[in-house]
Design brief:
The structure holds 2 protein chains of 2 kinds.
Chain A lengths: L1 H10 L5 H13 L2 H32 L6 H18 L1 H5 L3 H31 L6 H23 L4 E2 L9 E4 L2 E4 H23 L1 H11 L1 H6 L4 H27 L1 E2 L3 H16 L4 H21 L4 H15 L11
Antiparallel strand pairs in A: 1-4, 2-3
Helix pairs in contact in A: 2-3, 2-13, 3-8, 3-9, 3-11, 3-12, 3-13, 4-6, 4-7, 4-11, 4-12, 6-11, 8-9, 12-13, 12-14, 13-14
Chain B lengths: L3 E12 L2 E12 L2 E6 L6 H8 L5 E8 L2 E2 L5 H6 L2 E4 L11 H8 L7 H10 L1 H5 L10 H13 L5 E5 L7 H14 L4 E5 L3 H7 E8 L2 E7 H6 L1 H8 L3 H4 L1
Parallel strand pairs in B: 3-8, 3-9, 6-7, 7-8
Antiparallel strand pairs in B: 1-2, 1-4, 4-5, 9-10
Helix pairs in contact in B: 3-6
Chain lengths: ~325, ~240
């Protein structure tokens, strides 16, 4: 067993799991073109979930805050992006690829900026009074999620809202019998870009060093002379902005959104954070990709099990590693 | 006492509903090592944490270099030149040794002379410079915690039980290191190992049940076994 663990460690350790999943799925699916389509869909879905989950993981790791209202930023991000895209409808459907892309960037930027501003308000008004009190955090952030859903209903109504996609991202890349949706490739690349940016900030900057240290031991960071409360606000705003960005991308991916989106994504986002390990960006990425792949493979192979697949994945991971696959080191 | 770098005056500290410090007052003279001794649960760690602002004093005054820091926040206290090495060492295990050290430097840059001095005191710090800190042994972690406290010029270093769980050979290395550090920095040392405390301390304060039980020179305390037994439930033979 030890030699098996050591071999797995040399080959990449837990980072090998998505590869193992993909290989297993290839054997079970049998059809290469279907496998490629499902794998790309799983990776794209995973990257969008990563955007939503990474902020929650950092907020919990650094601030010890259980924010059940996190997915409200996802919902608002999705609806704001949908509204911006609807307002720029002529840019989206026009033949100019540049205008197409500008419209999409504006939609994503509007959602992200709203997420950051709402995150600032949420931290100051809702979360700040309940630091160090998990029970109250759960109650007040759940309450905030309900209020956010009602606000969405009041502003956008209860009917599903369709989300326009830029013409340049419609259609698929076709390689022989394999068709890969362009939007999924875009979602994957954007998620990858955000991950690389987060990785560089966390590992190559002093702010990143402080965040990583704060996740481990907030008190000691303060004893070294740093105001951790300022770091809290920054991380909370960044986490909320990323959730809103994820929501904007998810809106385009789904094509149709409802105010219940936040509640639906809340469970998936928490599963990803728990699988990945609290406070770890690498863990969130790993957890999100595994959740994305499992959701797509299981939906194809055993459709009746699709709804339970993420829960089963989480149970299996927690039985093996109770603190998740890549938790932040504590002490 | 005009040469006191730190003065505690009638400090009362509560943790939740429990009162831990009942009017603690003593002076820490500038320069060298001042030792705070006491039985388990006497209030030594609470005293250090209260000085550092990690727990708030309900009443009383803490004066550092003639400035009242009783209500100051921990980061402000740290920026005034007080470093803290907690009992659990406060090492960031997920960071490398270098990153731990860099975090303790206000600008993120190192004073090369200081770094050389640290490498001379604790060679393990240089050996494991780019390794993650969680992989260090207990003694090496303690060396890192102390190195982090001295990577910049500090006026006062608060150190909580640095010898806890360490092998005798490492404790001897620590004595040499603390003597060297104490030449240009004041150290307030909480310690239960009397042998270690006696080797270093100039002055000593004994705390019991959240109150100051005795204050004087370490020489005086080391000479009087009856006093040690009364104050610390300890004889020199036991302490080795």
């Amino acid at each position: 067993m030890d030699s098996l663990n050591s071999l797995a460690g040399r080959l990449g350790g837990v980072y090998l799991l998505p590869v193992v999943m993909a290989v297993l799925a290839f054997v079970l699916i049998g059809n290469p073109s279907t496998w490629v389509t499902l794998t790309v869909a799983g990776l794209a879905m995973g990257m969008m979930i990563f955007l939503m989950a990474s902020g929650l993981s950092l907020v919990f790791g650094l601030m010890d805050v259980l924010n059940f209202g996190h997915s409200a930023f996802v919902s608002f991000g999705a609806f704001i992006a949908a509204s911006v895209l609807a307002a720029l409808g002529s840019w989206l459907t026009g033949s100019s690829a540049a205008l197409n892309i500008i419209a999409l960037i504006m939609a994503i930027c509007a959602a992200t900026a709203f997420g950051a501003a709402a995150g600032w308000f949420f931290e100051r008004v809702i979360v700040r009074p309940v630091y160090r009190d998990h029970l109250r955090q759960i109650l007040i952030t759940m309450g905030a999620l309900i209020v956010a859903e009602q606000l969405l209903l009041a502003i956008w109504g209860g009917a599903p809202v369709s989300v326009a996609r830029p013409a340049v991202l419609e259609g698929s890349f076709v390689f022989g019998t394999i068709a890969i949706e362009i939007y999924r490739v875009f979602a994957f690349l954007l998620g990858l870009l955000v991950y690389v940016a987060l990785y560089l900030v966390l590992n190559r900057t002093r702010i990143g060093l402080l965040i990583r240290a704060g996740v481990e031991n907030r008190e000691m960071v303060e004893a070294l002379g740093f105001r951790i409360d300022r770091l809290f606000i920054g991380v909370f705003m960044a986490g909320s902005a990323l959730a809103a960005m994820g929501g904007a991308m998810w809106a385009g991916y789904q094509g149709l959104i409802t105010p219940a989106l936040g509640g639906e994504m809340l469970i998936i986002v928490f599963i990803v954070v728990i699988i990945g390990g609290l406070g770890s960006i690498e863990g969130s990425l790993l957890g999100a990709i595994m959740v994305g792949l499992v959701a797509n493979y299981v939906a194809f192979l055993m459709p009746k099990l699709a709804l339970a697949s993420n829960m089963l994945l989480m149970m299996a991971v927690l039985l093996w590693r109770p603190y998740g696959l890549k938790p932040a080191v504590k002490g | 006492m005009s040469d006191a770098i730190l003065r505690l005056d009638d400090v009362h500290t509560d943790i939740a509903q429990y009162q831990i410090l009942h009017g603690v007052g003593f002076d820490v003279p500038e320069g060298g090592v001042h030792v705070l001794l006491g039985r388990n649960g006497a209030g030594k760690t609470t005293t250090l944490r209260t000085i550092m602002g990690l727990w708030r004093a309900r009443s009383g005054a803490i004066v550092f270099r003639h400035q009242d820091i009783t209500a100051a926040r921990t980061p402000e206290i740290a920026r005034q030149g007080i470093a803290y090495v907690p009992e659990n060492m406060g090492i960031f295990g997920g960071l490398t040794v270098e990153e731990n050290m860099r975090l303790a430097s206000a600008t993120g840059a190192f004073d090369e002379e200081r770094l050389k001095r640290i490498f001379a005191l604790f060679p393990a710090i240089e050996t494991f410079w780019d390794k993650q800190a969680f992989a260090l042994s207990g003694g090496q972690k303690q060396m890192l915690a102390i190195s982090r406290a001295i990577i910049e010029r500090r006026e006062l270093i608060l150190i909580d039980e640095p010898t806890k769980g360490l092998a005798p050979s490492i404790i001897n290395a620590m004595i040499d290191a603390f003597q060297e550090i104490g030449r240009d920095t004041t150290i307030l040392l909480v310690e239960q190992n009397f042998h270690f405390a006696r080797s270093l301390g100039r002055g000593a304060t004994v705390i019991d049940d959240g109150r100051i039980a005795w204050n004087g020179s370490m020489e005086e305390l080391a000479r009087d076994e009856a006093l040690q037994t009364r104050l610390l439930s300890l004889s020199m033979a036991e302490a080795g």
